[in-house]
Design goal:
- Two copies of one chain form a homodimer.
- Chain A is globular.
- In chain A, 24% of the residues lie in helices and 28% in strands.
- Chain A has nine helices and 16 strands.
């Protein structure tokens, strides 16, 4: 029988995490019982929101426990099934442990059609990141023709889909990203109308002025901090700001301070709305159906950064904070 | 013929304004022409938003010009009419100059029924401040039975109506105000469920914890700054924050800084929405009708602070920033 491995939270991070917060362990091979499936992880998703689960605080999802296995989005292959829902060879996705072999409860897993699209997309453009872009942009951002939608983290898994959806809705899409290669990708592969490399300047204000001559109607915010301050200073009346992520603040050790935003929101009748994707659980089918249709039509493209080797999960996660990924960051375990 | 007087903006304020920004002048008695009405100001409204119009900046309403007459909400008596719309003796309200006698265009004035309620209410509970509370609380705050609605500036013209509307909708109303008398008034006259005197403490956190044991579902914000930071730390999932005013920041000379709020809005799926009352112009009749009905039923009460003497308008305006008023602050000129 194959050995089993898992990755546990060894200690809670303070500030920027390093590999010492994780521990790779051997563990028992799970014993299947009636009603469950034995699965082998194939693609493991690493996502910025997981940083929040590593500390003890009030949030929309409970914190990871110390010395317990990390869990997250996984695409897995069914090895053995004691459930009528799935059979061996099926691909499934859901929240599963960072562990090679594990048991899954079919009620919390969804089948992935390996013929329709690469199974990895179930964690990205056709999974939670695509859905996050879809509902955040359409339900909160609500871009309309002729408007300008700015997306930060625009070369990330959520941001690149959010910007493309704004363009589908007839808005100009302006992306902010952190390298020349990312800017090139979102401009030339994805068709963003303008893109700004925030690492090339100390002050993105003038770049924003050039990229958004008519101001900003939608700001899809993945990053927070000083970049967002600059964008928000440029919003138009009745602007909408979906708050999707604040990655620039996730490793802060003090309470992050910044200019107060209420005066600009007030004088411009602007809306700022936090959201989490589980708010939209009853509309996931709609979202995935529409995203898949747009992909077929060539109107939504996506990128993945895939790192091979289960044991590289910690390093992959840490890479999120230095912006190493273009699009969805995944670890492949087979 | 009586002499005429006006108050002009003598200079633009920096920081906390003083009387030197205003100048009381004699001016010509207006000559009426066809289609207009000659009116005499009776009640002049002083409002925090006017501070914003005294400086040159982008906002929802153009700045006052230097050495030109200030304008604002006024209830006036028609002295002479050359219009079929009004006749001498009618009371009207609208945006008019800070000037004893002036000319009005009937298209921009509304008749005030002096038999239905004191005419001063057309500037307060049955005017723009009541409407601001009505739409901000009902359209953005949307309190429901069992929720907790916190109102800052709760003894001001907008805040006291906002809190009472939350109670009409079945929420607990918690008011924050700046004196023992104000706290007493909103608790014992208006029926707020709890009230906090923010001037009695350096840290309203513990008071808020006691007043809001189940957290905060609606925060109707009139003041901004540190008080708002404390309230917003206590919001529940899906909280709504109508941004009505930020009076604590209006006299700031530097960009006001504070803790970044996006992380708490994000993790609690909360909404923050700036608004100005003119967004709701097509629903004013609905709002005034409902507010008048609630007043008749005794469910909405109001307070006014009236200062006599046209020449006291500058002093009255400055008093807004030291919180001298209970309820609507008006200057009576007759």
């Amino acid at each position: 029988m194959e050995k089993n491995k898992r990755i546990v939270l060894a200690k809670r991070p303070e500030g920027l995490p390093d590999e010492s917060i994780f521990r790779l362990e051997e563990c028992e091979f799970p014993r299947i019982s009636e009603g469950l499936v034995l699965v082998k992880g194939v693609y493991f998703s690493v996502d910025p929101y997981m940083r929040g689960r590593m500390i003890e605080r009030r949030s929309y999802i409970p914190p990871f426990s110390l010395n317990e296995t990390i869990s997250g989005g996984v695409v897995a292959e069914v090895i053995e099934s004691r459930s009528g829902t799935f059979q061996a060879g099926d691909y499934v996705t859901g929240m599963l442990p960072w562990q090679i072999y594990s048991l899954g409860d079919p009620r919390f897993l969804r089948k992935v059609d390996a013929k329709a699209a690469p199974v990895s997309t179930a964690l990205g453009v056709l999974g939670l990141t695509g859905l996050t872009a879809y509902f955040g942009m359409l339900d909160i951002g609500r871009p309309v023709p002729g408007e300008t939608a700015v997306v930060s983290g625009a070369a990330g898994a959520v941001g690149m889909v959010a910007g493309q959806i704004a363009r589908i809705r007839g808005s100009r899409a302006v992306g902010i990203a952190g390298s020349a290669a990312k800017v090139d990708y979102i401009l030339n592969e994805l068709g963003f109308d303008a893109a700004i490399d925030y690492k090339k300047t100390d002050d993105i204000g003038p770049d924003l002025d050039r990229a958004c001559p008519d101001g900003v109607d939608v700001y899809f915010d993945n990053v927070g901090g000083g970049i967002s301050d600059e964008v928000i200073q440029r919003i138009n009346d009745n602007a909408r700001i979906p708050l999707c992520g604040q990655i620039s603040l996730y490793n802060a050790t003090d309470v992050p301070m910044g200019p107060r935003l209420q005066p600009v929101l007030l004088t411009r009748s602007a809306l700022m709305q936090g959201f989490i994707i589980s708010n939209y659980a009853d509309r996931f089918q709609e979202g995935i159906g529409q995203l898949a249709a747009w992909m077929k039509e060539g109107r939504i493209k996506y990128a993945e950064t895939i790192i091979d080797g289960f044991e590289n999960l910690p390093r992959a996660f840490l890479g999120l904070f230095s912006g190493e990924n273009l699009g969805k960051l995944l670890v492949r375990a087979f």
